Amino acid sequence: MTMKILGYAAKASKAPLEPYRFERREPRSDDVVIEILYCGVCHSDLHHVNGDWSTNYPVVPGHEIIGRVTSVGKDVKKFKVGDHVGVGCMVDSCQHCNSCKHDLEQYCENGATLTYNSLDRHDHMPTFGGYSEKIVVSDKFVLHIPDGLDLKSAAPLLCAGITTWSPLRHWNVKKGSNVAVVGLGGLGHMAIKLAKGLGAHVTLFTRSPGKEADARRLGADEIVLSTDPAQMKAVKNKFELIVDTVPYNHDVNPYISTLATSGTIVLVGYLGELTPTVNGGPLVTARKAVAGSMIGGIKETQEMLDFCGKHGITSDVEMINIQDINTAYKRMLKSDVKYRFVIDMASLKK
Prior knowledge:
Shape: globular
Structural class: alpha/beta
Helix content: 10-25%
Low-confidence stretches: none
Mean pLDDT: 97
Radius of gyration: 20 Å
Order of helices and strands: EEEHEEEHEEEHHEHEHEHEHEHEHEHE
Number of helices: 11
Distance between the termini: 26 Å
């Protein structure tokens, strides 16, 4: 029997989210049924609701999910009823391509099954996200939440956290590394916390002079005003890695000049065409690189959660009720949140 679920959905492009009842699949033998306690609000949710990306309506957003296990299939061994668990941006992948075999399910060559706005690869039912009562997920894509980690503040780790952790690990950030972060928002504040947790010397690039105190509170060692030529010149050839979290088109060339030889600037917030185009000269003459990165695989995401549990790292959040989600979207567009909205899903019962 399928399950009747209450959630919040947008039924058309740019339509407000509103209560919506839908069906989730009957649990399979390897499934975990999760009561959703908290769900983070990601910029990706807003893009899907607005139709900026290819969206199948109605869409129930939400891929920063924290919940409690209410039942497990007969083949599930890693989870039990009552466990606190997480679900991120994916709920399945092909499991057999080269990427999947190397624990890189996010780059599944046959297309990962996303937590929402996707189709289940077995029964072809649409996937619906975490702005809802419950979710049913294959145990391979469910994550343990470490004991002692604040559940509300842990929700954004499932997207904002892993999106910034993955490049930090891939480019081998460690104690003594010189790392910079571009932008102080949901992704940027997590990049600072995680890079600092790994022992790096962390610099924030920002266009806003008023962010210095908050950046230092989060762990930044230095703040560089990117609109000040003198400050930019002072950090020329300095950084091994720059994590660029800006979610819109912008000029990356000024940041390339601050990379050390063999340094990399990695885009994690913007998916479109860059204009002005990147100047190849500094790349060729100092073996610098412009790269991109997207979330992380399940193994890497669990590693990130365990690291955060050990070091007490969570997101800075503002709690909201689901009834306030449309207002939260408007505020998010104005960057009026420090630094991530999280929905208390108990409010769905009001």
